[in-house]
Amino acid sequence: MADYVITPPRTVAIPVAGQDGLFPVRRVYCIGRNYAAHAVEMGHDPNREPPFFFQKNPDNLTASDRFVYPPNSGDVHYEAEMAVALKSGGRDIAVADALDHVFGYGLALDMTRRDLQAQAKKMGRPWEIAKAFEGSAPVGLIHPADRIGHPDRGALRLWINDELRQDGDLDQMIWKVPEMIAYLSRYFELAAGDVILSGTPAGVGAVDRGDRIRIAIDGLGDMDVTVI
After folding, report:
1. N or C: which end of the chain has fewer CB within 10 A?
2. Where do the Fumarylacetoacetase-like C-terminal domain residues begin and end (predicted)?
Protein backbone atom coordinates (compact mmCIF):
# COMPACT_ATOMS: atom_id res chain seq x y z
CA MET A 1 0.00 0.00 0.00
CA ALA A 2 1.12 3.55 -0.73
CA ASP A 3 2.17 5.79 2.11
CA TYR A 4 0.68 9.28 2.27
CA VAL A 5 2.68 12.36 3.17
CA ILE A 6 -0.28 13.71 5.15
CA THR A 7 -3.26 12.03 6.81
CA PRO A 8 -5.86 11.33 4.07
CA PRO A 9 -9.08 13.35 4.37
CA ARG A 10 -11.99 11.50 5.91
CA THR A 11 -14.66 10.01 3.69
CA VAL A 12 -17.85 12.06 3.92
CA ALA A 13 -20.85 9.78 4.45
CA ILE A 14 -24.61 10.13 5.00
CA PRO A 15 -26.70 7.83 7.23
CA VAL A 16 -29.11 5.50 5.42
CA ALA A 17 -32.64 4.86 6.69
CA GLY A 18 -33.09 1.36 8.07
CA GLN A 19 -29.45 0.38 7.61
CA ASP A 20 -26.27 0.51 9.67
CA GLY A 21 -24.13 1.27 6.61
CA LEU A 22 -23.39 4.80 5.40
CA PHE A 23 -23.63 6.31 1.92
CA PRO A 24 -20.17 7.67 0.92
CA VAL A 25 -20.19 10.98 -0.97
CA ARG A 26 -17.99 11.49 -4.05
CA ARG A 27 -19.26 14.72 -5.64
CA VAL A 28 -22.18 17.10 -5.13
CA TYR A 29 -23.97 18.64 -8.10
CA CYS A 30 -26.70 21.27 -7.62
CA ILE A 31 -29.18 22.40 -10.26
CA GLY A 32 -30.13 26.07 -10.31
CA ARG A 33 -33.62 27.52 -10.72
CA ASN A 34 -35.35 24.18 -11.30
CA TYR A 35 -38.78 25.33 -10.10
CA ALA A 36 -40.52 27.90 -12.30
CA ALA A 37 -41.87 30.05 -9.45
CA HIS A 38 -38.43 30.20 -7.82
CA ALA A 39 -36.83 31.18 -11.14
CA VAL A 40 -39.35 34.01 -11.42
CA GLU A 41 -38.73 35.22 -7.85
CA MET A 42 -35.00 35.32 -8.67
CA GLY A 43 -35.71 37.47 -11.74
CA HIS A 44 -35.41 34.88 -14.52
CA ASP A 45 -37.67 33.41 -17.20
CA PRO A 46 -37.72 29.61 -16.71
CA ASN A 47 -39.08 29.00 -20.20
CA ARG A 48 -35.92 30.20 -21.95
CA GLU A 49 -33.12 28.55 -20.02
CA PRO A 50 -31.50 25.12 -20.39
CA PRO A 51 -30.51 23.48 -17.09
CA PHE A 52 -27.35 24.67 -15.36
CA PHE A 53 -25.43 23.26 -12.42
CA PHE A 54 -22.95 24.36 -9.80
CA GLN A 55 -21.13 22.26 -7.22
CA LYS A 56 -20.73 22.03 -3.49
CA ASN A 57 -17.90 20.12 -1.87
CA PRO A 58 -18.57 16.68 -0.38
CA ASP A 59 -17.65 17.85 3.11
CA ASN A 60 -20.22 20.67 2.86
CA LEU A 61 -22.82 17.95 3.48
CA THR A 62 -23.56 17.44 7.15
CA ALA A 63 -26.03 15.31 9.07
CA SER A 64 -25.88 17.72 12.02
CA ASP A 65 -29.05 19.28 13.43
CA ARG A 66 -27.22 22.60 13.75
CA PHE A 67 -26.26 25.09 11.04
CA VAL A 68 -23.45 27.47 11.96
CA TYR A 69 -24.10 30.94 10.53
CA PRO A 70 -21.11 31.55 8.24
CA PRO A 71 -18.71 34.48 8.50
CA ASN A 72 -18.52 37.44 6.10
CA SER A 73 -22.21 37.42 5.23
CA GLY A 74 -25.25 39.23 6.56
CA ASP A 75 -27.85 37.61 4.30
CA VAL A 76 -27.88 33.81 4.48
CA HIS A 77 -30.85 32.09 2.82
CA TYR A 78 -32.46 28.65 3.12
CA GLU A 79 -33.39 26.54 0.09
CA ALA A 80 -35.29 23.27 0.67
CA GLU A 81 -34.36 20.51 -1.77
CA MET A 82 -34.51 16.78 -2.46
CA ALA A 83 -31.15 15.00 -2.62
CA VAL A 84 -30.62 12.22 -5.17
CA ALA A 85 -27.87 9.70 -4.27
CA LEU A 86 -26.33 7.63 -7.08
CA LYS A 87 -25.15 4.02 -6.77
CA SER A 88 -23.53 3.95 -10.22
CA GLY A 89 -22.92 6.24 -13.16
CA GLY A 90 -21.20 6.65 -16.50
CA ARG A 91 -21.23 8.93 -19.51
CA ASP A 92 -24.08 9.74 -21.90
CA ILE A 93 -26.71 8.01 -19.79
CA ALA A 94 -30.08 7.77 -21.54
CA VAL A 95 -33.07 9.35 -19.81
CA ALA A 96 -34.84 6.00 -19.91
CA ASP A 97 -31.96 4.35 -18.01
CA ALA A 98 -31.18 7.14 -15.56
CA LEU A 99 -33.17 5.92 -12.57
CA ASP A 100 -31.31 2.60 -12.67
CA HIS A 101 -28.33 4.53 -11.27
CA VAL A 102 -30.16 5.95 -8.23
CA PHE A 103 -29.51 4.46 -4.80
CA GLY A 104 -31.95 6.65 -2.91
CA TYR A 105 -33.36 10.03 -1.93
CA GLY A 106 -33.22 12.35 1.05
CA LEU A 107 -33.85 15.82 2.43
CA ALA A 108 -31.33 18.61 1.97
CA LEU A 109 -30.86 22.33 2.52
CA ASP A 110 -28.83 24.42 0.10
CA MET A 111 -27.79 27.24 2.42
CA THR A 112 -26.58 30.28 0.51
CA ARG A 113 -24.72 33.48 1.30
CA ARG A 114 -27.14 35.46 -0.85
CA ASP A 115 -25.27 38.75 -0.56
CA LEU A 116 -22.04 37.15 -1.78
CA GLN A 117 -23.93 35.32 -4.53
CA ALA A 118 -25.41 38.62 -5.73
CA GLN A 119 -21.93 40.14 -5.89
CA ALA A 120 -20.62 37.14 -7.82
CA LYS A 121 -23.49 37.33 -10.31
CA LYS A 122 -22.94 41.04 -10.85
CA MET A 123 -19.24 40.49 -11.55
CA GLY A 124 -19.71 37.34 -13.63
CA ARG A 125 -17.80 35.21 -11.12
CA PRO A 126 -18.37 31.64 -9.85
CA TRP A 127 -20.76 31.02 -6.96
CA GLU A 128 -18.63 28.76 -4.75
CA ILE A 129 -17.96 31.49 -2.17
CA ALA A 130 -21.73 31.72 -1.69
CA LYS A 131 -22.60 28.03 -1.96
CA ALA A 132 -19.66 25.85 -0.91
CA PHE A 133 -18.84 27.01 2.59
CA GLU A 134 -18.55 24.74 5.64
CA GLY A 135 -21.80 23.08 6.68
CA SER A 136 -23.73 24.65 3.80
CA ALA A 137 -25.76 21.51 3.03
CA PRO A 138 -27.51 19.94 6.02
CA VAL A 139 -28.92 16.57 4.91
CA GLY A 140 -31.28 13.94 6.27
CA LEU A 141 -31.30 10.17 5.97
CA ILE A 142 -30.98 8.60 2.54
CA HIS A 143 -34.02 6.42 1.83
CA PRO A 144 -33.17 3.55 -0.55
CA ALA A 145 -35.16 3.55 -3.79
CA ASP A 146 -35.70 -0.21 -3.54
CA ARG A 147 -37.85 0.55 -0.50
CA ILE A 148 -39.62 3.79 -1.40
CA GLY A 149 -39.49 3.84 -5.20
CA HIS A 150 -38.62 6.96 -7.17
CA PRO A 151 -40.62 9.95 -5.89
CA ASP A 152 -41.71 12.22 -8.74
CA ARG A 153 -44.46 14.02 -6.88
CA GLY A 154 -45.18 14.94 -3.28
CA ALA A 155 -45.19 18.05 -1.13
CA LEU A 156 -41.86 19.75 -0.39
CA ARG A 157 -42.24 22.21 2.47
CA LEU A 158 -40.08 24.35 4.74
CA TRP A 159 -40.96 26.18 7.94
CA ILE A 160 -39.02 28.83 9.87
CA ASN A 161 -40.01 28.81 13.55
CA ASP A 162 -43.24 26.95 12.60
CA GLU A 163 -44.16 29.52 9.92
CA LEU A 164 -44.60 27.90 6.49
CA ARG A 165 -42.26 29.60 4.02
CA GLN A 166 -41.87 27.14 1.12
CA ASP A 167 -44.76 25.01 -0.15
CA GLY A 168 -44.01 23.23 -3.43
CA ASP A 169 -44.30 19.81 -5.00
CA LEU A 170 -41.72 17.58 -6.63
CA ASP A 171 -43.84 17.45 -9.78
CA GLN A 172 -43.14 21.18 -10.27
CA MET A 173 -39.51 20.52 -11.16
CA ILE A 174 -38.74 21.83 -14.66
CA TRP A 175 -36.04 19.20 -15.19
CA LYS A 176 -37.00 15.86 -13.66
CA VAL A 177 -34.51 13.56 -11.94
CA PRO A 178 -33.88 11.31 -14.99
CA GLU A 179 -33.30 14.38 -17.17
CA MET A 180 -30.84 15.87 -14.66
CA ILE A 181 -28.83 12.65 -14.54
CA ALA A 182 -28.78 12.32 -18.33
CA TYR A 183 -27.80 15.96 -18.83
CA LEU A 184 -24.99 15.87 -16.26
CA SER A 185 -23.60 12.67 -17.78
CA ARG A 186 -23.04 14.50 -21.07
CA TYR A 187 -20.47 16.75 -19.37
CA PHE A 188 -19.19 14.64 -16.44
CA GLU A 189 -18.56 10.98 -15.83
CA LEU A 190 -21.01 10.26 -13.04
CA ALA A 191 -20.18 7.58 -10.48
CA ALA A 192 -21.33 5.85 -7.32
CA GLY A 193 -21.36 8.31 -4.44
CA ASP A 194 -22.45 11.32 -6.46
CA VAL A 195 -25.26 13.41 -4.96
CA ILE A 196 -27.54 15.74 -6.91
CA LEU A 197 -29.50 18.50 -5.16
CA SER A 198 -32.56 18.86 -7.34
CA GLY A 199 -33.60 22.48 -6.84
CA THR A 200 -35.88 24.50 -4.56
CA PRO A 201 -39.43 25.87 -4.90
CA ALA A 202 -40.40 29.50 -4.40
CA GLY A 203 -40.29 31.16 -1.01
CA VAL A 204 -36.58 31.32 -0.22
CA GLY A 205 -35.54 33.81 2.41
CA ALA A 206 -33.09 34.79 5.12
CA VAL A 207 -32.36 33.08 8.41
CA ASP A 208 -31.14 34.54 11.70
CA ARG A 209 -29.24 32.96 14.56
CA GLY A 210 -31.66 31.09 16.77
CA ASP A 211 -34.10 30.23 13.96
CA ARG A 212 -35.40 26.67 13.73
CA ILE A 213 -35.66 25.34 10.18
CA ARG A 214 -37.93 22.39 9.47
CA ILE A 215 -38.03 20.69 6.07
CA ALA A 216 -40.32 17.85 4.97
CA ILE A 217 -40.94 15.91 1.77
CA ASP A 218 -43.77 13.40 1.42
CA GLY A 219 -42.33 9.91 1.79
CA LEU A 220 -38.94 11.15 3.01
CA GLY A 221 -39.88 12.33 6.48
CA ASP A 222 -38.69 15.61 7.98
CA MET A 223 -35.69 17.14 9.71
CA ASP A 224 -35.07 20.08 12.02
CA VAL A 225 -32.00 22.31 11.90
CA THR A 226 -31.26 25.14 14.32
CA VAL A 227 -29.24 28.16 13.18
CA ILE A 228 -26.47 28.96 15.68
Report:
1. N
2. 28-227
With a cut of 60, say whether residue 199 has pLDDT above it.
Answer: yes
pTM attached to this predicted model: 0.94
Query: DSSP string of the chain?
Result: ----SSPPPPPPEEEBTT-SSEEE---EEEESS-BHHHHHHTT--GGG----EEEE-GGGEE--SEEPPPSS-S-EEE-EEEEEEES--BSS--GGGGGGGEEEEEEEE--EEHHHHHHHHHHT--SHHHHSSTT-EEB-PBEEHHHH----S-EEEEEETTEEEEEEEGGGBSS-HHHHHHHHHTTS-B-TT-EEE----S--EE--TT-EEEEEETTTEEEEEEE-
pLDDT digits (tens, 9 = 90+) for 126-147: 999 999 999 999 999 999 999 9
Fold that domain 13-227 belongs to in CATH: Fumarylacetoacetate hydrolase; domain 2 (3.90.850)
Check residue 45 and give its pLDDT. 61
User: Is pLDDT above 90 for 49?
Assistant: no
